[in-house]
User: Which sequence fits this backbone?
């Protein structure tokens, strides 16, 4: 009798993990909407466009977020190999790198403002830079909460199935927001 | 993965389902914060019905203004106060009524009321699952929907009135709080409500997709799913791919309204003052809006299609005509729906070549739509039809879809759309093809699955009364609008009698208003029937319509977890009605072919040669009996 509910649970966890993938799809569509909005808007008139040099901080934030993806993956691997000390360590590192990314993006906004590229702008192409990065930061924020939940779960010593479930969903999402940032950055660079 | 599997067996969970796994349920967990998909479906349905009544009431209010523009109704002032001073609805309030009527009907009734109810009810029951992929997310989806409904309605209670820029909320009208009174607090509330609504609808869609793909019972491969589940599944995919784009558009609109950006605003003079905003593009909003907006109309109609397919097949006692064609046409409609949004924008100064492209893609949609229509008709053809109320509403959907769909071909043509744009012709078109058709699909589903939801039957006689009043009423309301539109009467005008050439349409408007009022009163028959039958209806049997699908194998008392024992296994497609050689005119999906030797056909075995051999042997043995 014990076999049946566990079988159901496993199926159910699979379905729940699939939810994360679907959320990623919808989130990607959101950014596809923004970027196509940018293209349609910018194509409307030669006065529009980014018309500035993107802050160099973006290069650092790219490096930070790629590194954080690595630590996230290491946390996942250590969880899988039952090395829970390492798992906690790498989760903490991921959180720190995530916060560093947050900080780097805010610094980049500061640089943009110094360059005279404001959010409230008659060239909305420049406002779009803030929209892209801001909406991405929202995702980072959500991702940080997920990493934190995975960490707290491990500290409270939840069962390994649930621990692995949290690690898997968190790392899927975290890698997604990493790739999402690269997409945004490349998109901005191509339109610079 | 091996390690995960290993730990799963060690793991003990206390929240498993099954006959012995019942929690103590309090009123709060059973009826309010329920995570059971059947209860959530009922919550969606009843909220949807309440919203529909409100939406309909709003429409009758503005029909009063349109039918009797010169009369005063002191009663209106009693109820509406300053919005109907002197007994006549004010222009500002008229626009608010039109806007909120559209918003409620499109989003709250026909998107969530329809998908939320029937996807939640039928997906787990028809694919053989205990519940949704994430029951918690499902509950959250309902409560976000509820909060967003409350916020939308609360805009009637703010000083400046509800949003009035039309349900499409085009900027700059919606982006400038001072443009009209409705663009103030009312618009803010509208935006907050819609953001919550989108979140709710996305949660729902994600759940539906994941459940259909991961939680089907044994034997239920994709091509054995009922068309209802196919329709809900494809609808959910369309929702996931289109709603986020509306979020993008709305986020930029919020920035324009509240932060002073210029995404959509440029060169505006507002009450003698030049606004600083420069360089924005209001057309950008239309692109973002209609990229959702057009798929949205298919999000509305596709679940209605699915419900109707099931009901028409069951009540014709015939397999659905062209099951695969039905699925492929749904997929075709879903794909095409993403590349036709430009037909809403022919008059925005669009490049004529681009207009031509959108025109062609739009007209191609007529092909899968026609496939569906002809399949419905072919299913009805020489069927052993049972005219249950659900069946009548199903046939009603087909009727409205034909009469409203034909005018879609007119409007899809750029050259014809230019004179017809924003006239009553458009109003007539979409109220028939998506409004009436979808609401008939929804009512069809309510009458058909009421016994599954509440364990009781609805009264048939009241159902017939409801059907005929609504059917005739809807045609009387919307059909004359075509002719007004052809004459150039524009939609959303408060007092078109001020224009000489439109004065002659006043009598027609009176007819429409009377028809709307009577059809509106006819809904009382439904409301009484619905709520009365929940408590006092005739007790339903387990399978009152002699239907094949899995939901009718569950007990009449609705258990958490759906089936008391094991989930049944599926052996056949859901449309084995009146199969030659079988004593009964239906064979449920759970009956294996070994029990129906007298009716099996070679293609039933899908190339399984062993089964074919056994069947042939059986046929030989029983040949003599067959001749008798």
Assistant:
């Amino acid at each position: 009798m014990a076999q049946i509910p566990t079988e159901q649970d496993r199926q159910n966890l699979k379905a729940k993990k699939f939810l994360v993938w679907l959320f990623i799809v919808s989130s990607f569509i959101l950014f596809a909407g923004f970027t196509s909005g940018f293209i349609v808007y910018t194509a409307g008139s030669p006065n529009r466009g980014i018309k500035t040099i993107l802050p160099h901080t973006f290069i650092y934030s790219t490096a930070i977020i790629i590194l954080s993806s690595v630590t996230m993956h290491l946390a996942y691997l250590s969880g899988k190999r039952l090395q829970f000390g390492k798992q906690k360590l790498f989760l903490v590192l991921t959180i720190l790198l995530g916060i560093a990314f947050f900080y780097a993006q805010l610094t980049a906004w500061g640089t943009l403002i110094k360059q005279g590229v404001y959010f409230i702008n008659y060239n909305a192409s420049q406002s779009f830079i803030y929209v892209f990065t801001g909406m991405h930061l929202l995702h980072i924020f959500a991702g940080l909460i997920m990493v934190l939940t995975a960490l707290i779960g491990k500290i409270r010593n939840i069962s390994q199935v649930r621990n692995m479930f949290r690690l898997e969903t968190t790392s899927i999402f975290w890698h997604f927001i990493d790739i999402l940032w690269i997409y945004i950055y490349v998109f901005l660079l191509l339109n610079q | 993965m091996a390690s995960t599997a290993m730990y799963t067996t060690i793991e003990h969970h206390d929240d498993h389902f099954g006959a012995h796994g019942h929690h103590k349920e309090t009123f709060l967990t059973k009826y309010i914060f329920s995570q059971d998909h059947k209860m959530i479906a009922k919550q969606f349905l009843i909220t949807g019905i309440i919203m529909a009544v409100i939406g309909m009431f709003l429409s009758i209010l503005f029909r009063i203004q349109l039918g009797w523009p010169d009369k005063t109704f002191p009663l209106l002032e009693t109820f509406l106060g300053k919005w109907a001073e002197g007994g006549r609805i004010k222009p500002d309030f008229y626009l608010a009524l039109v806007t909120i009527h559209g918003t409620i009907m499109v989003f709250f009734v026909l998107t969530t009321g329809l998908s939320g109810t029937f996807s939640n009810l039928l997906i787990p029951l028809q694919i053989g699952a205990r519940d949704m992929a994430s029951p918690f997310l499902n509950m959250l989806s309902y409560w976000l929907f509820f909060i967003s409904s409350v916020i939308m309605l609360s805009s009637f209670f703010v000083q400046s009135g509800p949003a009035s820029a039309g349900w499409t909320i085009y900027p700059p009208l919606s982006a400038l709080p001072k443009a009209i009174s409705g663009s103030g607090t009312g618009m803010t509330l509208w935006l907050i409500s819609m953001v919550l609504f989108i979140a709710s609808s996305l949660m729902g869609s994600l759940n539906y997709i994941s459940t259909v793909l991961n939680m089907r019972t044994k034997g239920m491969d994709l091509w054995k799913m009922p068309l209802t589940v196919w329709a809900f599944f494809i609808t959910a995919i369309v929702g996931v791919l289109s709603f986020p784009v509306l979020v993008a558009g709305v986020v930029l609109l919020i920035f324009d309204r509240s932060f002073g950006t210029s995404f959509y605003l440029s060169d505006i003079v507002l009450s003698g003052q030049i606004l600083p905003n420069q360089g924005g593009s209001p057309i950008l909003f239309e692109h973002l809006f209609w990229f959702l907006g057009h798929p949205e109309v298919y999000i509305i109609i596709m679940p209605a299609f699915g419900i109707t397919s099931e009901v028409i097949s069951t009540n014709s006692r015939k397999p659905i005509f062209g099951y695969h064609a039905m699925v492929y046409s749904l997929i075709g409609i879903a794909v095409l729906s993403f590349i036709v949004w430009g037909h809403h924008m022919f008059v925005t100064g669009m490049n004529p070549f681009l207009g031509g492209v959108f025109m062609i893609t739009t007209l191609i949609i007529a092909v899968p739509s026609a496939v569906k229509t002809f399949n419905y008709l072919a299913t009805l053809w020489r069927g052993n039809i049972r005219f249950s109320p659900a069946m009548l509403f199903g046939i009603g959907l087909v009727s409205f879809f034909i009469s409203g769909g034909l005018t879609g071909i007119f409007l899809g043509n750029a050259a014809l759309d230019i004179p017809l744009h924003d006239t009553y012709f458009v109003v007539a078109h979409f109220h028939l093809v998506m409004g009436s058709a979808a609401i008939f699909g929804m009512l069809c589903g309510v009458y058909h699955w009421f016994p599954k939801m509440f364990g009781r039957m609805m009264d048939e006689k009241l159902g017939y009364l409801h059907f005929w009043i609504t059917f005739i009423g809807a045609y009387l309301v919307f059909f004359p609008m075509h002719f007004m539109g052809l004459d150039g009467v524009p939609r959303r005008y408060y007092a078109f009698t001020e224009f000489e050439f439109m004065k002659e349409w006043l009598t027609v408007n009176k007819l429409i208003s009377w028809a709307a009022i009577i059809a509106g009163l006819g809904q009382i028959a439904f409301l009484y029937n619905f709520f009365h039958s929940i408590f006092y209806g005739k007790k339903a049997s387990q399978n009152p319509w002699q239907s094949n699908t899995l939901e009718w194998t569950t007990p009449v008392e609705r258990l958490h977890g759906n089936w008391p024992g094991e989930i049944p296994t599926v052996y056949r497609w859901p449309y084995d009605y009146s199969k030659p050689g079988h004593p009964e005119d239906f064979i449920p999906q759970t009956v294996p072919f070994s029990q129906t030797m007298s009716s099996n056909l070679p293609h039933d075995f899908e190339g399984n040669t062993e089964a074919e051999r056994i069947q042939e042997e059986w046929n030989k043995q029983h040949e003599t009996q067959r001749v008798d």
